[in-house]
Batch of 2 targets.
Target 1
Amino acid sequence: MVLPAFTPAQESLFLTLSGRALDSRLPHPFLGDRMADEILRKTGYDPLARFPTMRSRLVDPRTKVFDIAVRAKRLDAVVRAFVGRHPNAVVVDMGAGLDGRVFRVDPPPTVDWYDIDLPEVIALRERVVPRHAHAHAIAADVTDERWLDGIPAERPAVIVADGLVAFLPQDGFVSLLGRLTSHFPSGELAFNAYTTVAVWATRHLGSFATIGGGVVNPGFNDPHEPERRVPALTLAEEIFLTRAPELAAMPLAGRLAARMIAGSAWMSRMSGTTVLRYRF
Ligand SMILES: C[S@@+](CC[C@H](N)C(=O)[O-])C[C@H]1O[C@@H](n2cnc3c(N)ncnc32)[C@H](O)[C@@H]1O
């Protein structure tokens, strides 16, 4: 398949897709998304050529995929719990890339699901991600004002963004949060956080050279920061992957490092992956 020339922000979808695909090839996967591997194979994209950490022989395969696979699992769990309580919910996956989250979550048919991404990505998505009866794709920049007009406004919503926030300018991110909380009557918003250190690392470390140029958000270290910017939001949960039960299946070095850090929320926030969940 001839792939379009993606920007670094768009190409980042292959890092998360590859992480889930490689996870599914493990003897005991953390997430086990076999469809991710099928989608990756259909595209013909070679993650080993583009992401040095994925090809490194020094890094254990479980370590390569842990953060990507387990954060996807946590975001799936947020969606699953929400649609369990609200069978008429709307699900919005912002910056969905080529993720088949709707197939993993498998919501009841009363749920409407919206996958949003930039037009070039949605065009590829339509070629390689299987169709789902209750999922709709919207080709839009999430910082544009109009895309929400096409989504029902009278139903509770759960909104997720896996790997997106780093690629949004700060003013665009804040006004997006404001529009989401005004559009829906109530709901939840969950995303993986980027600290200032994580942003710096993604911009400057050679291992992220393929996507670093797309990172424009400054990041934030205090999970209450979005509440201050958008008062409709209330932080409901801060999920630290340094405390994930799945760490039991990691190599010894990873387990020990996480155990040293896990006792401190600050250290967990600054050095590990965190999923933030807000209510509105
Ligand atoms: C790291 S990828 C994650 C993709 C997907 N969520 C996953 O987990 O595989 C980030 C995604 O955000 C999308 N993206 C970046 N900026 C965007 C914007 N302004 N509007 C919509 N999507 C955007 C990119 O095209 C890309 O698909």
Note: The pocket of S-adenosylmethionine is lined by residues 9-10, 12-13, 15-17, 95-97, 99, 116-118, 121, 141-143, 162-164, 167-168 (CB under 6 Å).
Target 2
Amino acid sequence: MTAYVPAERPTLYFIGVTTTRSSIMKVFPAWAELLQLGEVAIKGIDFPPGAPAEEYREAVRFIKRDPLSLGALVTTHKIDLFNACRDLFDVIDPVAGLLGETSCLATHQGRLHCYAKDPISSGLTLARFLPPQAFAARPPALIFGAGGACIAISQYLMQPERGANRPASLIVSDRSASRLSELKRLHQQFDASFPVSYQHIDSTRQSDALLAGLPEGALVINATGMGKDLPGSPIGDEACFPQRAIVWELNYRGELTFLQQAQAQQASRQLQVEDGWDYFIHGWTQVIAEVFELPADAVAGDAFNALSDCALRVTRQGATS
Ligand SMILES: NC(=O)c1ccc[n+]([C@@H]2O[C@H](COP(=O)([O-])OP(=O)(O)OC[C@H]3O[C@@H](n4cnc5c(N)ncnc54)[C@H](OP(=O)(O)O)[C@@H]3O)[C@@H](O)[C@H]2O)c1
């Protein structure tokens, strides 16, 4: 059992695996100053992936009861923590209930809320870089990797309020059949208005073929973690992106092989190539806004740019990850 010590000042927790190595530990104090949050703190809580349910419950019970522990950002353990602690949450945001996961805990008026912020943060990131007419010619989207990020991004793309601003179809590939079946089960609840094709693949050659089958202007996303969490890229060096494709690598650090493969064809194929920096900033700032009860404009527009510049400065000053 971990001995949790009551917080001495308003505290945000970061529940992950190796949280002390994350650059957010240096970025957060700089952001706290910029956002005028006062004397606040960030603390990491590390669990190995798939930790016992009682360990998640202990952490969540502590945050719920400790007056100065205001909330948490959750990575890696989003689904396991949600399942282990469901009865401890006073309020479950509908998207968290739908996706069966939580990336954000926040106490508001003594009640513990849980939220799934990933569809919001991935959506804000896409909205920032997608041209207004990105889907006007009804191109498809292709997502390599059917994990948590793919669930969030596809949920965003399927939202009915997007009207015609949606891809004509979606192709998702994964090397795990169970991930694809789980995604399909969730998609049936999202009420997608476009067809989805679930491709079980086990080779780079098959990924290359999926890419080769795309028309001009398609949205192509690497959500496999390859190039950061795993070496390499889902596609081979010979793979060809479609003309004028919009290519998004979800990570911003690591060897980023997929990003480099896209950049190598950027000029010849007129690609728009994006990395995961803005996604990282939106992911954190959405949770900070929720936990510290900031108005939406505190982390949007010019404020978002200032937070991003500040994080860049701090990370360049020598943070390790
Ligand atoms: N910038 C940001 O703030 C941000 C935010 C969210 C996510 N991300 C990044 O996005 C990546 C994905 O995140 P996630 O949470 O969705 O991870 P995840 O849940 O682990 O999903 C990745 C999926 O891709 C599959 N995969 C691995 N290699 C593949 C290949 N060659 N072809 C097709 N599928 C393959 C994995 O299968 P196995 O399970 O068999 O390995 C897994 O199902 C991570 O690297 C994460 O760091 C970045």
Note: Residues 144-150, 173-176, 179, 201, 207, 223-226, 228-229, 234, 250-252, 276, 279-280, 283 surround NAP (CB under 6 Å).
